[in-house]
Specification:
Length: about 180
Amino acid sequence: MKLSVFSFLFHAIFFSSYAYGFYLRDTKIDLYRRDTTIDPNQCTATARESHRSVTVILINEIDYNITYSTHILNWGVWASVACDPSQTIYPSLPINQSETFSAVSNGFLTGTEGKVTFSIDDKKTPPNTFSIYWDNPFSGSNEYSVEMSNTNLYDYQIPPGAGVGDNAVYQVTISKSA
């Protein structure tokens, strides 16, 4: 009896983790990411374990570093310390690099809502900033916005279809204005 219970548990754990691992390998997001000790897909994988999550992929295509300023999480928590932008984008996000951060729901029938503000290290006064806002509610449609302090100098791009679903991935590329 003990052997069959052990066998059942072994197979359940082994085969379910194998299928989950295959699923994650099949949906990896490959970007030109700076060399860190954090797996580029760790935030996405961790976020998928939640009922609702938003993973933001921030891509820097300007001639200046991007520095984390502040954040507000109205609902939810960071998926892990490794997915907190105050930790991952520190001291700054270099030119032509990307970084990922994720927030997840942390209660019964809840979602995640938040806003992260960054500054552009271009030595302008007042400093140029931008904010990324998301709201992935338990029910209803997801909402996103990007607010730029100076649209004459900087712009942003979001690929079509970004940010949909319960475990959404929202890619934001910061670039120079045309």
